[in-house]
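Entry:
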Amino acid sequence: MASTSVSDASCIVEVEEEYPYGPSNNFPYPSHNFANINIVTVKLSGRDVYNVWEEQMLCLLTSHNMLGFIDGRFLSPSDGNGKAKEEDMKAWIRSDSLVKGLTPTDRITSDGNTSLHVAASTKNNKLLEKLLKMIPEENNTVLNVQNSLGSTPLHVAVIVGNTEATYALVRKNPDLLFAQDEKGRTPLDISFYNMHMEISLCLLEHIIYCRYKEGKKNMFSGTSGEELLILAISHKKFGLSLMLLRLYETIHNGEAVLMSIAQNFPCELNFWEKTINAWEDKHRGLIWRFLIFGFPFLKRLQTHRDAIDLLGAVFHRIPKKSDSSPPSLAQCYINLVFEATRLNAYEVITELVQYIPDAISSINEDGHRFIQYAVINRSEKIYNLLYKHIMCDHKNNYKTITDPDGNNLLHLAGRLAPADKLKLISGAALQIQRELQWFKEVEEFVGPITRTRKNYADETPEMVFTREHADLVIKGEKWMRATAESYTITAALIITIVFAAAITVPGGNNQDTGIPIHENNIAFKMFAVSDAISLFTAVTSLLMFLSILTTRFSAEDFLFKLPKRLIIGLAALFISTSAMIIAIGASLFLVFGHNNSWILIPIGVLTCLPITSFVTLQFPLIADLAGATYGRSIFDKRKEYFY
């Protein structure tokens, strides 16, 4: 076989025309600076130049007959008995080691990235897989190579959200989990900051394995675990937060963690979710749990359960202090107490009061106590909790407490609610109604003597309420008038239509007797009854809306009087509209349905269409009004809040 020797100032390469097996020169070996040869002119500085760089790199490897070590053509030169000639084996190992050493770990960009960094960043996972196979198990520490930013290939994979590369790199070298970049961040830190929660879960699973199976204790030497925990909670990933919490035996900044839970705690479960939750508590079997949480719309139930479990776990990891030591434990959690009260996070307050009973005596910088702040911020769940469990033995003391401005609880209830609480209620009329409900509830609590006491501004609670809610009452009046006027026009039109239909009988009358021709027809009877119902209910609806337009619109009227009239008017209008549509359908059947019973199907379908539309568009308003006026009170002081 002929052999050609190619020499260069930078490299010496021996190339064979035939391969892979033969004399030692069958396996080429560049002796100097193979990675710096000028054939690769493009620096791999981004994804946009990757294709050009890849083509030039392949040309380089091919021109020096080294590509076979990557694509698998240059196998280990062993004979049929599993043995190899010594000189061939040495040559193969020498060349193969060169490729292994240069291709995965050599810095090939101006930022100090290796081909592993590039493959992870461009999500070229097939290339990454090949590169990882080239690295022997006993030498996997080469994966710790860092670029100019101190990032390992695992850091890069996490930054771009390359989940597959993350799994592959961690399996190859678990020590990468604890590598830090120049800012001291581990891959898990970066995954949380970049909101790659799936990758965070992957890394946590491997970290927990390393801790309990391999005895690693220093889990996070970079960013503190509490900061990561707060990030996970802020993303509302409470299950992931529970996993992270297992890695820490003590939480030093408990207030910050609990504050994050209070600010991101999931909404209270509705009736059906509570029912399912209670049933699931009695059936802890895996089959039942699978059936319950297999439905996507019930995942909120699991989220709520995880949040409760996380809350309890955090309290158990907070170090206890002696109340005699400065500052006391209650003083350390003052901000949490009032923030959780503002957010109406009664779950947090429940656990906090059980853990730190003295927290209820906290006073904020404005001189307000727990109960006062709950009234100011319209936190009904906290108020109910305090009323039933905390103030039960000292209610008289709380009835007469005042703030630095001389305001008692009723003065504070007379203030306008914060904007973020008002916007939770749709419509100015319902907003003023809720404010009145709060004022009446606190008025009942404080008793008759406190109702007339004045503050330092010489104002009674009623005067404060009138002044603070003047603009809201005006807005409520405008909304109520506009609503009543629009429905008044609708009711008048319906009255006109159904009255005309009542005196114009379908099919006409018998000229001799004056009795309708279709008197004994079921469809005619349905027409007559529906038309009468529509007429009478439309008149009722019109009278209700007219009474709203002529009322005096005082603040007290928004509590029951105006909502009641609007509910009756809307309900009557709905019945009238439905009856009118049914009457029209019956009339059409009388005219066109003779010996054509099939026509009943399209008439029925078309009749249901406007009724369904009316229900869809108007029922939410009726439901909101009825629920706020006659529904279950928000001040359910009988409710049990402790677990």
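The mean pLDDT is 78.
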